[in-house]
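Let's practice the habit of predicting before peeking. Look at the sequence and jot down your guess about where helices and strands might fall. Then scroll down.
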Amino acid sequence: MKYDYLIVGAGFAGAVMAERLASQSNKKVLIVEKRNHVGGNVYDVYDEHGILIHKYGPHIFHTNSKEVFDYLSKFTEWRFYEHKVLANYQGDHFPIPINRITINKFFDLDLKTEGEVKSFLSTKIENRFPILNSEDIIVNQVGRELFEAFFKNYTKKQWNLFPNELSPSVCGRIPVRFNDDYRYFTDKYQFMPKEGYTKMFEKMLSHKNIEVALSTDYKKIIDNTKFDKIIYTGPIDAFFDYQFGKLPYRSIRFEYEYYKKQNYQSAGQVNFVDMKEEFTRVTEYKYLTLQNTDATTISKEFSLQDGEPYYPIPTDMNRKLFLRYKQEAEKLKNIIFCGRLAEYQYYNMDQVIAYSLNKFRKLANA
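Done guessing? Here is the structure:
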């Protein structure tokens, strides 16, 4: 059989492109995935205790885009969920992102209005200009003490780099609030797929024009497969056989623990921001899935230098290496590089979906 598109990778970028090409352009698509499941890093599965877990760490859907929300709604029903995160600092819990509750508790204050919080922080912040790294952006917002407590060591554990070694974009993604709102996200649409992400992906890829090959390395089948174009969503350096060297990523090792009690902790996610514990955060999945069971499963996350590529490391040196690969990619005809790994760029889920929908529109109109 001849395919119009060979798509490498069954995460969001690959799945959205496959679904749109099949359903809107009547294209024949073969989607090839090296893992034994669809869904990429948002894959979820029931563990041996019947608890629905996220195999590659917690993924919370949130967006302000009606287009993205309406698109995914074709493949899932939703369950309302607002994510709450606590920071464990020296054995005590503080809301994250930093807000009035965090500030009052940390400094033993009783600030009551947003104006009082802003006025207090104005006595703590260090005005740095230009903003060159993640330390600059945080001390410029909340000052040295909150930076040292909640950002410095957590960032080092997660990235093996201190904030002053990382792009401002890393810590700049975390807001600071002057009120008591301690939802982690404030987007208009905050939901979780009612039956989980994997079921949603299976529906996305159930079109008659889509064939899915799991546990398959595309390089081993490419010479015997007929197709017109490739959409590649894997690591761009792997596509070129690392000819300029490997692009660095941070990876994660997960340790799962099961407890015969209603809940393990008081929020879905607790970040361990000091160096007392080696792991970075603990996720309790029942908060995310609202399962009604008398037992619970958690995961502890340990950041690693090697392993599955999770987070591109945003430094100037790594950016320059990526651009060398990008220049090679731009020379190739009939190969489209798409998604987080192919662009060495961290995207939220909704950003990947919006990006892929836009990429499809450009293809369809070409």
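How did you do? The two ends are 25 Å apart (CA to CA).
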